[in-house]
């Protein structure tokens, strides 16, 4: 498995229209054929010092292997998402993990 | 869905025995009944400035809902893991996400 988890911080989190645009963009990614599991999230209401809850959206994508992840990275749908939405976020943090 | 993703930084990453103990501890968690999906990971070899790859292990747990996550948090298996292994890590970062 290849687990790709992306956390997004919005530039203007109080701008509802921008938030909606990013969510729409994230949803568009689901059509990429090599994705096995997808979850588009927002912070849960858990709150302990070790919990990072400052992000605005999370995108969890699980692929069968790295090759499928690489296909996603250069996929036209992903490229369009970055083009359309990258101006909306101020920060992105990515964690990529493979089987231990 | 409730997505619980934990990233661990080992206190002594060069100590193979400690690494193995943490991995064993992480594997023990898989028996908790409320977990739907589990992935124990290590950083992939992807490497871009936005990618955080300094951690040593990741633990992705997907639950059907927050209630199932809460059950896990107080489960004896989880408590034993924290007891046995918390001395091994120097840092833990958790991201909890619910459906956007």
Automatic annotation (TrEMBL), chains A, B:
SMART domains: Dabb (SM00886)
SUPFAM superfamilies: Dimeric alpha+beta barrel (SSF54909)
Entries under InterPro entries matching the protein: Dabb (IPR013097), Dimeric_a/b-barrel (IPR011008)
Domain Stress-response A/B barrel: 2-97
Name recorded for this polypeptide: Stress responsive A/B Barrel Domain
Organism: Pontibacter ummariensis
